[in-house]
Write a structure and sequence with these properties.
The protein is of the alpha/beta class. The protein has one domain: Response regulator (Rossmann fold, 3-Layer(aba) Sandwich), CATH 3.40.50.2300. Helix content is 42%, strand content 15%. The protein is built from 5 helices and 5 strands. It has a 5-stranded parallel β-sheet. The longest helix has 18 residues.
Length: 144
């Protein structure tokens, strides 16, 4: 499996983007991290994706985004014929039952409330890396 597929981070908070980047650097993540800073930018990315473009190994999606909310971004991702199968991990500060329920109904693969503590965030990043970029078999993976 190609372990250098990009990870797509859809996050508007610059501090959370920095925290995510530092967490992945600390664990020597080989996957490049592509950042989209609002819902419209993410939807434009999905709409502009063409066959042959690198498919993200996983999408990390915040729900509270400017312009277009994360739940709508998730709906658009799941409707795309090629990118729609990419695992989506909701990584957000919202622990609201309604957000969790809606995210899973729209096809989220996982829902994680962002830890405030940096060391705990590092652990979350390590587990995301291990599971979603190393262990998880993607629908576009070719057997060895």
């Amino acid at each position: 499996m190609n372990t250098t597929l990009p990870i797509l981070l859809i996050e508007d908070n610059p501090m959370d983007v920095d925290l995510t980047q530092r967490a992945f650097i600390r664990h020597n993540l080989a996957n490049p991290l592509e950042v989209m800073r609002d819902g419209q930018e993410a939807i434009d990315f999905v709409a502009g994706w063409r066959a042959g473009d690198p498919v993200p190994s996983v999408i990390l999606l915040d729900l509270k985004l400017p312009k277009i909310c994360g739940l709508e971004v998730l709906r658009v991702i799941r409707a795309h014929p090629d990118i729609g199968t990419v695992p989506v991990v909701v990584l957000t500060s919202s622990a609201e039952d309604d957000d969790i329920r809606k995210a899973y109904l729209l096809g989220a693969n996982s829902y994680i409330v962002k830890p405030v503590d940096f060391e705990k965030f590092i652990d979350v990043a390590r587990q995301i890396e291990l599971y979603w970029t190393v262990l998880n078999m993607h629908s576009f993976s070719k057997p060895a």
